[in-house]
Amino acid sequence: MKMPNTYSYTHDTPSTPPRKKDHKRVYNPKWEQEPDFKGWLQPLSGNNTKACCKICNGAVLRAHKSDLHQHYNSAKHKKNSQAMRIQEPVISHGKLEMC
Ligand SMILES: [Zn+2]
């Protein structure tokens, strides 16, 4: 029985690019368009690994989607978003300096 020569096969793969996976998660402005995040998510200026919530007094969040979802589902956030609705805010543009 002949052994297949898998040796060189598994080993040298010189054409493989260096595995530089960018693991750093950064804020994605596209998230703002998602229904769950619409209306409250905004970037934190000066730090693209963070985000903040407009309606929770500029609560700072990590720019991880799971964190944002968690925030969205938090009681505090829900309460705040409801309060927002009741107050029926006249959203003034240019009020982005909260965080
Ligand atoms: Zn919030």
UniProtKB/TrEMBL annotation:
Residues 1-28, 72-99 are annotated as: Disordered. Residues 1-14 have a biased composition (Polar residues). It comes from the Eukaryota. Residues 18-27 have a biased composition (Basic residues). This is U1-type domain-containing protein. It comes from Artemia franciscana (Brine shrimp).
